[in-house]
Amino acid sequence: MVSIVHESEVAGLPAGLGGRRQPLLSAARVPGSGIVLDRLSLAPGGDMMLAVPATGVAWIQPLEGETLLFHAGENHLLTEAQVAVLPPGFAATLTSARGAVLLYGEVLAAGQVDSTFVAKPPPFQLNDWTREPVLDSEHDARKRIYLVTPKLFATKAVKGEIIIYPPGTAAAEHHHEGAEHFMYVLRGRGTVYANGQPFPVRKGDVIHYPDRERHYLEAAPDDELVFAEFFTPADFKTVWVDDSKVCAWLPTGRDIRGRIPSREIKAHSVAAIVSPDDV
Q1: Which of 60, 63, 78, 142 is least surrounded, with the fewest CB atoms within 10 Å of its CB?
Q2: What's the N-to-C CA distance of the chain in angstroms?
Q3: How many CB atoms within 10 Å of residue 118?
Q4: Are residues 93 and 50 in contact, defined by beta-carbon separation less than 8 angstroms?
Q5: What distance in Å separates the CA atoms of residue 192 and residue 244, rounded to the nearest whole number?
Q6: pTM (two decimals)
Q7: Contacts of 67 (CB under 8 A, 6+ apart)
Q8: pLDDT in tens, the chain (279 residues)
Q9: Phi and psi torsions of 51, nearest 5°
Q10: Same fold, 3-126 and 130-269
Q11: Which residues contact 68 (CB under 8 A, 6 or more apart)?
Q12: Residue 112: CB partners within 8 Å, gap ≥ 6?
C-alpha cells in the first residue's frame, strides 16, 4: 500500500553542530524497504558528518542554500543545481555559512540491486542537473529532467529524475515492476491516485509505492506540481493500464534555463520494457 508522510510530521534528530536529520523513509517506516531518505538541515554556521556504509551507495540533492562538502582534503560547493553520488565507504563533513536543506538518499545493499557494484563501485561525482536536457511528454505538457542515471553516475543501484506537471496535468495510470519507487514533492500541490484511491499531496511530501502498485498523479488546477522521483534498482519495467497511453519522452534541445544542454538524449519510450540505461 502507498505510504505518504510530510516532512513536518517527522521529528528531527540532532546531527553535528547546528544540524538536524529527519528520517523520511526507512525500513522502520516502510517494512522491507532497502532505502534510506533523510532531510538534512544545517543552521547558519552548522556542520554534520556523513558516512556511507561499505555496502551502500548514496546521493545528495540540495534543496535550499549552499553547502560545502569537505572530503579527502577538498571542498566541493553544493547548490540547488547540483546532485552528488557518494560511493561506498565515503566520509565527509557538510558545512553551511548561511544555512541549507538537503535530501540524502541511500541504497543500503547496493550489491543486491547492481551486479557490477562490488567489482566496480561508482566514484564520487557531482553533476549540474540544470544543464541536463529537458524532455517533453508526447501526450501532454509534462517535462522530465534526469538527476541520477547509470550513464551519469556509473551505477544501476538507483535512478532519479525531476518531473514537472503544469496546472491540471495528469499522467496515465501505470505500475512499475522490479523496483522500489518513491517521490519527494519539491513544490506545488496535487493528487496521487494509488490503486484507484486519491491522496492529496503537497510540497514536502514523500510518497513511497511498493512494487507493482498502480498509480498516477494529477497537478492541482491552479498549481504546478514538481517532484523528484527515484527507483532502486535503475532497471525496472513500466506497464500501462491502457497501452495507447504509453509515453514517449522527446528531446527539446534545451536545458531548464533555455540553454544548449550539456549532452544529448534521444527520444525514448517507457513502455513495458526494461528502463533505458543509455540516458
Answers
A1: 63
A2: 30
A3: 11
A4: yes
A5: 21
A6: 0.96
A7: 42, 77, 78, 94, 95, 96, 100, 102
A8: 899 999 999 999 999 999 999 999 999 999 999 999 999 999 999 999 999 999 999 999 999 999 999 999 999 999 999 999 999 999 999 999 999 999 999 999 999 999 999 999 999 999 999 999 999 999 899 999 999 999 999 999 999 999 999 999 999 999 999 999 999 999 999 999 999 999 999 999 999 998 899 999 999 999 999 999 999 999 998 999 988 888 889 999 999 999 999 999 988 876 645 567 668
A9: -145, 115
A10: yes
A11: 75, 76, 77, 78, 94, 95, 96
A12: 34
Cα–Cα nearest to 12, from 32, 49, 39: 39
Where does 3-126 sit in CATH, by number? 2.60.120.10
Domain ranges (residues) in the chain = 3-126, 130-269
The architecture in CATH of the region 130-269 reads: Sandwich (2.60)
Cell of 166: 503544469
CA atoms within 13 A on the CB side of 264: 3
Sign of the four-CA dihedral 36, 145, 79, 154: positive
Residue 156: CB atoms within 10 Å: 21
What residues contact 193, with CB distance under 8 A and at least 6 apart?
173, 199, 215, 216, 217, 218
Question: How far apart, in whole angstroms, are the C-alpha atoms of residue 250 and residue 29?
Answer: 37
Q: Can you give the C-alpha Rg of the chain in angstroms?
A: 18
